[in-house]
Amino acid sequence: MRLPSIMFCIFLLLFVNASHAQQCGSQAGGAVCAAGNCCSQYGYCGNTAEYCSPSSGCQSQCWSSGAGAPPPPATPTAPSAGGGDISGVISQSVFNDMLKYRDDTRCHAPGFYTYDAFIAAAKSFGDFGTTGDSDTIKREIAAFLGQTSHETTGGWDTAPDGRYAWGYCFLRENTLDSYCNVTQAWSCAPGQKYFGRGPIQISYNYNYGPAGQALGYDLISNPDLVATDSTVSFKTALWFWMTPQGAKPSCHDVMTGKWTPS
């Protein structure tokens, strides 16, 4: 089967199973929330007790200890050795077809999410899009673009080509809350906010800190680098994709079959 057909089918499947209003869990085809957030019993993402407490019906990425306990910080994981050039797997034309409205003036980040930045960022993660056979490789790339498109979608019911064709429309989260968890090991810098930014909408100081440490950037002091440098932005998304979170496996390990349920 040709690459565009494989990627489009997986990409479309990820989206048609997602509900417009509901973001995760059984209401959204089993999707999990980005940046380690919890999925409430009603299918929404958040980090308070109503989302995270098992007694409140939390569906995934829930608190494992008492009420009020935040999720554990991610363990800093350095990118693997370079060499992960995936331009031979996904061409610029396929990338543009899958994300064809990302530069539309009705979106909030025209010109930011470039193919070149994606390819450059992937080279910092040698295992991304290079692990397994051809179908596994294509499936992982398509799943990554599907998940990040879900996080950044800007479509609406009557949008051209439907609401699910508008991935990579948003750059910064609509709410500009601080997302500073003072109980975590990664302290917050004065005046900085850690709301969602970039393809995976990375959020909270306990994700910005480890991501920056692994990638070689001070994202605690300058979190907006994720929204001003396209390559760094994609790197944070790929870091989150490749990094296990606490007892949870990485998305990469799940998609490539390195992890199987017990």
TrEMBL record:
Membership in a protein family: Belongs to the glycosyl hydrolase 19 family. Chitinase class I subfamily.
Recorded GO CC terms: vacuole
Subcellular location per the Swiss-Prot or TrEMBL entry: Vacuole
UniProt organism field: Cuscuta europaea
SUPFAM superfamilies: Lysozyme-like, Plant lectins/antimicrobial peptides
Active-site residues, record numbering mapped to chain: 151
Keyword Coiled coil attributed: no
Domain Chitin-binding type-1 residue range list: 21-64
Disulfide bonds: 24-39, 33-45, 38-52, 58-62, 107-169, 180-188
Main location: other
Gene Ontology molecular-function annotations: chitin binding; chitinase activity
Role summary: Defense against chitin-containing fungal pathogens.
Protein name per Swiss-Prot or TrEMBL: Chitin-binding type-1 domain-containing protein
Key word Cell inner membrane present: no
Signal sequence annotation: 1-21
GO aspect biological process, one term: cell wall macromolecule catabolic process
Keyword entries, A-Z: Carbohydrate metabolism, Chitin degradation, Chitin-binding, Disulfide bond, Plant defense, Polysaccharide degradation, Signal, Vacuole
